[in-house]
Specification:
3 helices; single chain; mainly alpha; Monovalent cation/H(+) antiporter subunit G; 120 residues
Length: 120
């Protein structure tokens, strides 16, 4: 097998794995019962699936402009997914949507009475 065939086969496998991870993330968003597990499903497999698909595209096209375009896409996803999950989880905690029985450690218990604008 030539190097081009090996890279094409590798990109095919990576796209398939990335698509499966994105599909499991979507199924997890629909099937999981509470906010914390849905946040886990929305961030971890989806981000890894996107990274795998971007790497597969870079391997398939083998061009520097494509890589230069995909690197910021991956970096923005890595920067925004944890931040948005943190903000959604924090708001769910403040609203009381997260059951206290499901928390092992409650580090925000003392800030529960603090208004959001007070910096707590």
């Amino acid at each position: 097998m030539t190097l081009d065939a090996i890279l094409d086969l590798t990109s095919l496998v990576l796209i398939l794995l990335g698509a499966i991870l994105c599909l499991t993330a979507a199924i997890g968003l629909l099937r999981f019962p509470d906010v914390l597990t849905r946040l886990h499903a929305a961030t971890k497999p989806q981000v890894l699936g996107l990274i795998l698909i971007c790497v597969a595209i870079a391997l398939s096209l083998r061009a520097w402009p494509v890589i230069a375009f995909l690197v910021p896409v991956i970096l923005m996803q890595l920067a925004t997914a944890p931040l948005s999950a943190h903000m959604v989880g924090r708001q769910a905690y403040r609203n009381g949507t997260i059951g206290e029985a499901s928390l092992y450690v409650d580090e925000l218990a003392e800030s529960r009475g603090t208004p959001p604008a007070a910096g707590g």
